[in-house]
Write a structure and sequence with these properties.
The complex is a heterodimer of chains A (126) and B (411). By secondary structure, chain A is α+β, with helices and mostly antiparallel strands. Chain A has 5 helices and 3 strands, in the order H-E-E-E-H-H-H-H. In chain A, 48% of the residues lie in helices and 20% in strands. Chain A starts with 5 loop residues before the first helix and ends with a helix. Chain B is globular, with a radius of gyration of 22 Å. The chains are: A alpha+beta (126), B alpha/beta (411). At the A-B interface, loops of A face helix 12 of B.
Chain lengths: 126, 411
């Protein structure tokens, strides 16, 4: 059973950075219409750097663990560096091979993060 | 009568496949069925010996292909107990059949403030076209709700019916729960109110005998691919007198009678609804699927379905933490379930590692799954080649789910 490594099960059962921020710089709700998975992501940014990021979610082990691992990896990072993140980075974080059908589960948190980054950039323009 | 289950698997080449080192157990029949050798051979026979366009060529191949295509129409009419083959339209699938009714009959017959009724059990294919039609026409869309026992609330259905009701859209079998609504009774009630009735028979047509004459429905839609036939073929049955009043759905070649530069006239039903070159090969092969099913007989198929479903329910019910969605009253061939603490997608992935194909998610019936109060379900659906051994293997996979997610099945 390669798909469910100890890391994934650990992050699924005990998600890191769980919860919401009282004053987030951006908040995104992202659904996967295929399975009903949902992620609510809050991010707080100062001087182009992630101060904190948290999430609430419901869904499968892959989508929830991937989001937990992703948020673990972005604390203190520059927004610019996060713009370069791809699905492959998420799969590397999960450390497993993911079938095409499950890639969308793995991507859910990243899609939410990308939307949050777009929102932050639009805010800055205004 | 042929023996079902293990014996008949030999006639389906796909069951020689191994997945992740295990022989395939296919329990996703509500999505699509596997194809017997007879159907695969019919497809290849057509392309090898008969390929030509229909309804136009004078040459031998075109005549042969036209004959076989039209013979399939007759075959379908007999299969459904329709009055005439002119009541059978070939489409791309059940979804297109329903959209044809919405676009052609619906556009002409539905007016502002009219009412369309659908049931809470519907697949998106028999819901979204009616949402759109109602929105465009300023008509009202009402839903027959679900009872606590996962059946349709007939009392509320009766209270919804009025002189404004123009159309009632009902599934013959839920793809999520397996619920079989009392169609005859509901159709009679709808007719008494002056409404037409469309039946989405996609889930039932390969499992139990369909008799449009006895049902007295106005429209009936289904796909070939859930009943051993090829993908890309749908059927729309409609009463001849209704079809005659309906405008064409798409325009172009083959559906015309005569074409002048500025005006054209159209062929009679069913051909006025089949513009362009149809899916000739798959329609012809579909006849072999009907032959295959009828050679076995629906009595035998139903008996087999019933046995598998009750066996699966009893096996899966023995695991604590597993919730089964079992409707009161009549149901067939589908078992939705959830495992406490494990998302259905993860259940399906663990099953897949054991070569057991099941469906997980919303099953193209999002409002219904929401009514069940869950995020999603895992679903096993059975057909004539499945065996009790398949269900035993699914139970082993379920135990694997408990193990992977460190849940004690006996806790």
């Amino acid at each position: 059973m390669d798909l469910y490594s100890e890391t994934i099960l650990d992050h699924y059962r005990h998600p890191r950075h769980r919860g919401l921020l009282s004053r987030p710089s951006a908040r995104v709700v992202q659904h996967n219409p295929l399975c009903g998975d949902v992620i609510k992501l809050d991010i707080s940014v100062k001087d182009g750097t992630v101060v904190d990021a948290r999430f609430l979610g419901a869904g499968c082990a892959i989508s929830q663990a991937a989001t937990s691992l992703l948020l673990d990896s972005i604390q203190g990072k520059s927004i610019r560096s996060l713009e370069r993140l791809t699905t492959q980075n998420i799969i590397d974080l999960l450390g497993i091979s993911v079938s095409k059908a499950r890639e969308q589960c793995a991507q859910l948190g990243l899609t939410a993060l990308q939307k949050a980054i777009t929102m932050l950039k639009q805010k800055r323009k205004r | 009568m042929q023996k079902l289950g293990e014996h008949i698997k030999k006639q389906f080449p796909i069951f020689s496949r191994r997945i992740n080192g295990h022989p395939l157990v296919y329990l996703d029949n509500a999505s699509t069925s596997q194809k017997p050798r007879a159907v695969i051979d019919a497809l290849s026979m057509y392309y090898k010996t008969m390929n030509a366009n229909i309804h136009r060529g004078i040459h031998t191949l075109s005549e042969e292909a036209t004959d076989r295509y039209e013979q399939t129409r007759t075959r379908v009419a007999r299969f459904l107990n329709a009055k005439t083959s002119a009541e059978i339209i070939f489409t791309r699938g059940c979804t297109e059949s329903i959209n044809l009714v919405a676009a052609s009959w619906g556009a002409a017959a539905i007016r502002r403030n009219d009412q369309i009724i659908v049931s809470a059990l519907e697949h998106h294919a028999n819901l979204v076209p009616w949402q759109e039609l109602a929105r465009k026409k300023g008509a009202r869309l009402d839903i027959i709700p679900l009872t606590a026992g996962f059946t349709l609330d007939e009392k509320i259905f009766h209270s919804l019916l009025s002189r404004k009701t123009k159309l009632v859209c009902l599934t013959s079998q839920s793809n999520v729960l397996g619920t079989i609504p009392p169609l005859r009774r509901m159709i009679r009630a709808a007719h008494a109110a002056g409404a037409r009735v469309l039946v989405d028979a996609a889930q039932s047509v390969g499992h139990s005998r369909t008799n449009v004459h006895a049902l007295d429905c106005d429209f009936l839609a289904f796909s070939s691919h859930k009943m051993l036939g090829p993908t890309g073929v749908g059927i729309l049955y409609a009463k001849k007198e209704t079809l005659d009043t309906m405008p064409p759905y798409q325009y172009g070649g083959d559906m015309v009678e005569s074409v002048a530069q500025r005006r054209s006239t159209y062929r009679p039903a069913p051909w006025k609804f089949e513009a362009g070159t149809p899916n000739i090969a798959d329609v012809i092969a579909f006849a072999s699927a009907i032959d295959f099913l009828e050679s076995i007989g629906f009595d035998a198929i139903q008996k087999h379905d019933t046995d598998l479903l009750s066996y699966a329910r009893s096996v899966f019910a023995s695991y604590p933490g597993v919730r089964l969605f079992v409707p009161e009253g009549e149901s067939n061939s589908v078992l939705s379930f959830t495992v406490e603490g494990v998302h259905p997608h993860d259940v399906a992935t663990v099953f897949d590692v054991q070569a057991i194909a099941i469906r997980s998610g919303l099953h193209c019936a999002e409002p219904l799954v929401r009514l069940l109060g869950v995020e999603a379900t895992a679903r096993m659906s059975f057909y004539l080649y499945n065996t009790r051994t398949d269900i035993d293997r699914a139970a082993r996979a379920l135990e694997k789910v408990f193990k992977v997610f460190s849940l004690a099945p006996s806790a």
